[in-house]
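Course assignment 3, question 2. Fill in each field.
Student: A.L.
Task: Predict the tertiary structure for the chain below.
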Amino acid sequence: MSEQTRNITVNRKARHEYHILQTYEAGIALVGTEVKACRQNKANLTDSYARVKNGEVWLIGAYIGHYEQGNRFNHDPHRDRKLLLNKREIRKLDKIVKEKGVTLIPLRMYFTRGKVKVELAVAKGKKVYDKRETIAKRDQQREMERKFKY
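Answer field:
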């Protein structure tokens, strides 16, 4: 993460629930009050996903809270939002997602040079034993670091 990027929200649950196969950076089409709410860190990507519909990629289930000074011009916090990708990338994602068990998951939402971007991952769901294995590896790594520390 460089100096010009600032995280709005991170989907921490995604790395626990899914194997990340590939990541993409996508722009996101927002209205003004949504951008201002993002500047106040009022966004949440938990339980959200992306889907390819009619040659466009849509972010579904993401929450961007109301902007306090938005009055009657405020947005719907749970609306579907269009992700901005190249046609070639969209076709590639559409082909990948048609495989069994593969989905598009947003990992984080962040600002880069004043624009809101979404890090989109091609992911495959983990089984329960995979999750346990990941936790065991993390604990083992932590123990080794403790031993080397002393």
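Instructor remarks: Residues 43 and 64 are 4 Å apart (CA to CA). Strands lie at 5-10, 18-28, 43-44, 49-53, 56-60, 63-64, 81-84, 102-112, 115-125.
Grade: pending
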